[in-house]
Amino acid sequence: MNPKLIEGDARSGLLIIVDHASNHVPEDIALGIDPALLTQHMAIDIGTEALCGLLAAELSASALLATVSRLVIDLNREEDVPGLIPHASDGHAIPGNADLPAEARAGRIERFWRPYHAAIDRAIAELNPRMLVSLHSFTPRLTSDPDQQRPWEIGVLYNQDERAARAAIPLLEAAGIATGDNFPYSGKILNATMNRHGEGRGLPYLGLEVRQDLIADADGIARWGAILAPIIAGTRDRLG
Questions:
Q1: Which domains are assigned to the chain?
Q2: What is the pLDDT of residue 111?
Q3: Which InterPro entries does the entry mention (predicted)?
Q4: pTM exceeds 0.70 for this model
């Protein structure tokens, strides 16, 4: 299953990648969960598909968006890690993924993970972008840890390559945005897609995590599109 492609102008120098844009579960895969959970963060990065569409239009950028839920397979994980096909998420068991036979696991990798990352490889080869943009959203708090406070409006994530992060964080702070420097998640721990396609090529990337309650409706998406488009462009331009 290939990702959704938004075609842009290669001259933008940008490729936007959204690993968790979809909550789609194919009819032949039974997760064994309450369907209501598919509307929650455990299944999808809320708001990212619409925000990506707006940013791609504003920046004339191409974009690739996942078309399957991370509960089926988490595309932002390495192929060989246990969490690639999660057995539980945010305190909820996923019975359909427990004790998955090796051939079924391999089948999901072949059906979803490999085509997704192959499509990113092709897009980078064709577009030769100056910078990747990785777009995610995060919850104000985890259901499994409701006392944990996450005051940031946006997080900028990175592993070893800090070039885009160091350019973007001052721009976000100057705009009055409460910005997490490798918070609420650390790219030094979880950065699989950008490790593979950015750091593996020496290609700068800007890893963005927007708090999901801020982009949960059209007004919020419009506001954050207006905030982020010039910051993404400014980050790209500062990289030379």
A1: 4-238 (3.40.630.40)
A2: 98
A3: N-FG_amidohydro (IPR007709), UCP029730 (IPR011227)
A4: yes
